[in-house]
Amino acid sequence: MSARAPAWQRYGDILALLAALVLLWWGLARLAGPEALTGPAETLARAGELLDSRRFHGHIAESLTALGYALLLAALGGLGLGTWLGVRRLAGQVAEPILVALYALPKITLYPVILLIFGLGLPAKVAFGAIHGIIPVTIFTLNAVRTIRPVYLKVARTLRLTPWQAFRTVWLPAALPEIVSGQRVGFALTLLGVLIGEMFASQRGVGFVIINAIGLNDVPTIMAAAFLLAAFAATVSAILLKIDRALHRRTLRA
Amino acid sequence: MTLAAVAGPGLRAGEAHAALRGVTRVFPPADRRQAPVHALGPVDLDLARGEFFAVVGPSGCGKSTLLEILAGLAAPTEGEVVFEGAPVRGSPPDGVGVVFQEDASFPWLTVWDNVAFGLRRAGTDAAETARRVDHALGFMGLAGFARAYPAQLSGGMRQRVCIARTLVLEPRLILLDEPFGALDQQTRLLMGDELLRLWRDTGATILLITHALDEAAMLSDRIGVMSARPGRFIDMVATGWPRERDSTIVADAAFGEVTARLWSSLRAESLKALGGER
């Protein structure tokens, strides 16, 4: 295991990167002018206004509700499906190319179909978010289960574990680091799916706020909403990445 | 001393602890154009209770297949496996412990939890589990590493974790598949001493698979020499060592005789195995 860099160095790098990004943003805003790109200070001010407004709270609640349901479906559905396909070798071999093809498919092309099935409103957004997230979660989980070292399964057999014991105490922990990686990718894509869902054929949610501001050419609101989304996504991703790294570090072989 | 093939110590007529009778293993071909691979046998083997038996043979001769069949991890194509009077059919029987060639310690558990793993699954109560795990860790020289994760340990220590995990279940038959294969020579000699101590203290029957002739000669009561594939026993060598013994036996004149006999049996087969791989 490699020693970790000292704290000032780790956080120093992150701070320097953030400062460079803000500087780049500021420079671009100066170049493009306020009608195309709002600068950092104005964006933060507008974001503060949005966070204070009761109406925006409703949009956030709507988006979080849709994201929550979509994540639940993608995370649990992908976990179950991926595990099943990983254990059933033949089913996994059949399903994998199909899944990879679906992963590559721009899912926006399916949105009209989803709208026809679920109608306007929350269910369509949830379904659209979930189909974005469930495929990477399934692919990652399938590979996580399939690449468990066979010797662990032999140990489970020689210790005469019941199938449930073997699953809970060997299969699952052995596959967990890769499963968490899959959940991380799944989260990012589910969020994307929900927002795209809100941008079209919806009257509520942060995605709607953005598309509405685009229609009104309200650049500060577009930038503020994008900024808030980026902050939220980066925070959740950072937490998942931390868990991911901690799990992977343990499996590193000295 | 004579190196005649003899029965193991403590064996009364017709009382094998574990036995293979006419066991073969044929792997079906990967596709129709290829012939099936005859990996093993037919093999007959009687292990006496409390015997230390080693299997040596050229690489690819089916040693590991033999172990998996005896462990109940694989079913023989023909023949039967008996452990303590009951047939073994493709599922591991109670009382058999296996240590694999690869590192099989669970990276997500601490050393202590790795060793306690089997006891917890078997529902042993906490106090008894703690007592046995602490004892096994002390015995294997791991007491100071109970809270460490396997990734923090050397390969030799991880293998000791695996041996301890098997040991705490107090198996009556211990099967070891080249457990020291990845270790350096000095560590292997010391691990051999620990294995002998374990064997004396527990009274377990041990079957050790190894490619190292000196290791087999130093540790065993009896050594089976296997042919190139399909693996069969072509020689049985009884060492006649006392039960109280350790790695210093390598300095004994008889040790040289045993290894020389093993090599003379094995040399032609190893050449065959080499030729077969070309």
The number of distinct β-strands of chain B equals 10
Record the strand order, biggest sheet of chain B. Answer: 6-7-8-3-9-10
Q: What distance separates the N and C termini of chain B?
A: 40 Å
**What percent of the residues of chain B sit in helical stretches (DSSP H or I)?**
25-40%
What CATH architecture of the largest domain in chain B do you see?
3-Layer(aba) Sandwich
Helicity level of chain A: over 70%
Biggest interface: A-B, 24 and 27 residues
Protein structure class of chain B: alpha/beta
Find the CATH superfamily of the largest domain in chain B.
Answer: P-loop containing nucleotide triphosphate hydrolases
> Count the strands of chain A?
0
What is the mean pLDDT of chain A? 88
CATH superfamily of the largest domain in chain A: MetI-like
Question: Mean pLDDT of chain B, nearest integer?
Answer: 84
CATH-defined topology of the largest domain in chain B: Rossmann fold
How would you sum up this structure, described in words?
- The complex is a heterodimer of chains A (254) and B (278).
- Chain A has helices at residues 7-32, 40-52, 54-87, 89-104, 111-118, 122-146, 150-158, 163-199, 206-216, 219-251.
- Chain A is mainly α.
- Chain A folds into 2 domains: 1-37; 40-251, MetI-like (MetI-like fold, Orthogonal Bundle).
- The model of chain A has no long low-confidence stretch (mean pLDDT 88).
- Chain B has 2 domains: 46-95 and 172-278, 3-Layer(aba) Sandwich (Rossmann fold), CATH 3.40.50; 106-170, no CATH class.
- In chain B, 35% of the residues lie in helices and 22% in strands.
- Residues 1-13 of chain B have low confidence and may be disordered.
- Chains A and B meet through helix 7, helix 8 and helix 10 of A and strand 6 and helix 2 of B.
Question: Any chance you could write out the topology, listing elements then pairs?
Answer:
The complex is a heterodimer of chains A (254) and B (278).
Chain A: H1 7-32, H2 40-52, H3 54-87, H4 89-104, H5 111-118, H6 122-146, H7 150-158, H8 163-199, H9 206-216, H10 219-251
Helix pairs in contact in A: 2-10, 3-4, 3-6, 3-8, 3-9, 4-6, 5-6, 6-8, 7-8, 8-9, 8-10, 9-10
Chain B: E1 18-27, E2 37-47, E3 52-56, H1 63-71, E4 78-83, E5 86-88, E6 96-99, H2 111-121, H3 126-139, H4 155-167, E7 173-177, H5 185-202, E8 205-209, H6 213-219, E9 222-226, E10 233-238, H7 253-277
Parallel strand pairs in B: 3-8, 3-9, 6-7, 7-8
Antiparallel strand pairs in B: 1-2, 1-4, 4-5, 9-10
Helix pairs in contact in B: 2-3, 2-4, 3-4, 6-7
